[in-house]
């Protein structure tokens, strides 16, 4: 029976003993099984976007306003030390990182809706592993974020930002955007599994987004921050997302810690969130 056929089964208690309850799959499973199961979940999630793409357009409004209004105004001042970059060039990668964060951090509310509709029960009794269910949703969030990247890159070109347009840099930007969206969507997934209600989730999501954004180097350098805020910024994964985007996107842009470190931090953080979300996923139905 295919994954889609299992997803169509009537709701069954998550406490029932399905064929696969493991974190990464069946005992005899392979990486290929995990990839196939994850891609099936991602495909289902992406079909929702293709049927109603208005969400992608509405998500692009806020970063567009940041670039057109905030960026244009602060480009005229030299109070913010951005080195050889104009403020708009410094800010463009931060706005892209902000778009990734804001679109991914509320991804968990969809999990609560699925729980209320009985979809989570069906997913949990399917042959797919919990890790594949979570990873598939994370990948779909990353692919959705690519549309935001395209819009912001095109707008940045119109505004005169000196972007790196060679294939290696563009592929690097795409990988970082997918990785960042996967990280923050699984973080959102974890929050949803813990709070379990839409009202609590919306309150916590709103509380987290602003500190994550402003305690990073998205719109001003870490050097401008007080010492205590620098410590917070250095453990904030959004800082490493901005670092990587700034070096890959903008001519003359440089990561403050080095591109390999940025990739390592984002990858490890994403892996931790996927494992934690996979462990917590069954608990959302209880």
**Could you list the spans in which at least 5 consecutive residues all have pLDDT below 50?**
1-28
The helix count comes to: 13
Overall mean pLDDT score? Answer: 83
Q: What shape does the CA trace take?
A: globular
Quaternary organization:
single chain
Write the layout of secondary structure elements.
Elements: H1 3-7, H2 31-51, H3 54-59, H4 61-74, H5 87-105, H6 108-117, H7 119-124, H8 130-158, H9 167-195, H10 198-214, H11 227-235, H12 237-249, H13 259-280
Helix pairs in contact: 2-8, 4-5, 5-8, 5-9, 5-12, 6-9, 8-9, 8-13, 9-10, 9-12, 9-13, 12-13
Can you walk me through this structure?
The chain is mainly alpha-helical. The chain has one domain. It has helices at 3-7, 31-51, 54-59, 61-74, 87-105, 108-117, 119-124, 130-158, 167-195, 198-214, 227-235, 237-249, 259-280. α8 (130-158) packs across α9 (167-195), α8 crosses α13 and α9 (167-195) packs antiparallel against α12 (237-249). The protein is globular and about 60 Å long. Residues 1-28 have low confidence and may be disordered.
């Amino acid at each position: 029976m295919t994954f889609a056929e299992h997803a169509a089964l009537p709701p069954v208690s998550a406490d029932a003993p399905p064929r696969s309850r493991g974190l990464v799959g069946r005992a005899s499973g392979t990486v290929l099984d995990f990839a196939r199961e994850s891609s099936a979940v991602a495909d289902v999630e992406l079909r929702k976007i293709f049927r109603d793409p208005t969400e992608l357009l509405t998500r692009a409004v806020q970063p567009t306003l940041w670039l057109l209004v905030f960026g244009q105004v602060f480009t005229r001042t030299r109070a913010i030390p951005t080195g050889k970059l104009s403020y708009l060039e410094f800010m463009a990668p931060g706005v892209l990182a902000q778009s990734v964060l804001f679109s991914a951090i509320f991804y968990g509310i969809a999990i609560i809706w699925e729980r209320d509709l009985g979809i989570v029960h069906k997913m949990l009794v399917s042959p797919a592993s919990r890790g594949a269910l979570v990873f598939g949703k994370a990948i779909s969030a990353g692919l959705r974020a690519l549309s935001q990247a395209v819009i912001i890159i095109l707008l940045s070109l119109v505004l005169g930002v000196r972007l790196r347009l060679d294939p290696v840099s563009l592929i690097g930007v795409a990988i970082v955007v997918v990785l960042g969206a996967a990280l923050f969507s699984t973080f959102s997934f974890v929050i949803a599994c813990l709070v379990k209600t839409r009202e609590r989730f919306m309150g916590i999501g709103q509380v987290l987004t602003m500190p994550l954004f402003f305690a990073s180097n998205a719109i001003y350098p870490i050097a401008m921050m007080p010492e205590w805020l620098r410590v917070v910024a250095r453990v904030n994964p959004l800082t490493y997302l901005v670092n990587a985007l700034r070096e890959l996107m903008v001519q003359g842009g440089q990561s403050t810690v080095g591109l390999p470190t940025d990739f390592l931090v984002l990858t490890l953080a994403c892996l931790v969130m996927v494992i934690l979300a996979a462990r917590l996923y069954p608990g959302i139905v209880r």
